[in-house]
Amino acid sequence: MPFFLWKGINIPELKINEAIKSKELRVIAPDGVQVGVLELKKALIIANELELDLVEVSPESKPPVARLMDYGKYKYELAQKAKESRKNQVKISVKEIQLKPKIDTNDFKIKLQKSRKFLETGDKVKFTMRFRGREAEHPEFGQKVLDNYKEELSDIAELESTSKPDGRSITMVLAPIGGRKWNIKLTKECQKESELVEQANICEDVLTDHIINWQRDLELGHV
After folding, report:
1. pLDDT tens per residue, range 18-55
2. Residue ranges of the domains in the chain?
3. For every residue of 197-213, which 3-state class applies, written as one string?
4. What would the CATH number be for the domain defined by 3-88+187-219?
């Protein structure tokens, strides 16, 4: 399904007016009342007289279902639903804290407060301990600092992963306790697919509102 950009949000594209290819359509009035099966030309005349758009909302039906509506208003409704859906999404990111084996008390506290703030807002925290020169000969000193952070934050965070010393650094990732496990390393393709699925679901909700009366009549055998 093609999409168009509407106020920064991708919205599923529907065929409207002259872009519709079907010769016959089951036409639904703006109030949900069935007009009946009409030739495309006649349906377009009615739409023009009402100063509305003829929108093909169910192209797979036989015949396809079209609704007389204000298409601009329809796109606005979709954009609002998409915006509301994004507000309700939990966005989790990974914040990085860079450390050195030799860290003074004040610096430790400052980075501890920053880490706690990240975790309290639902983000994960990646601690990166970097070694310079001979510091790499004693990675246990750096590990001790990481363990101190883990202990200080144990009331709100749990250990998600650690790395073994590679001579230059050690990493440790803490995640909020009970937080949802997110795959941070989604490919761009997967992210795009996820967005398309969300947009399709939003579109489906709005279209359901538009053709619910037609579906009810169909189930009752009035069509």
Report:
1. 889 989 999 999 888 888 999 999 999 999 999 999 98
2. 3-88+187-219, 94-176
3. HHHHHHHHHHHHHHHHH
4. 3.10.20.80
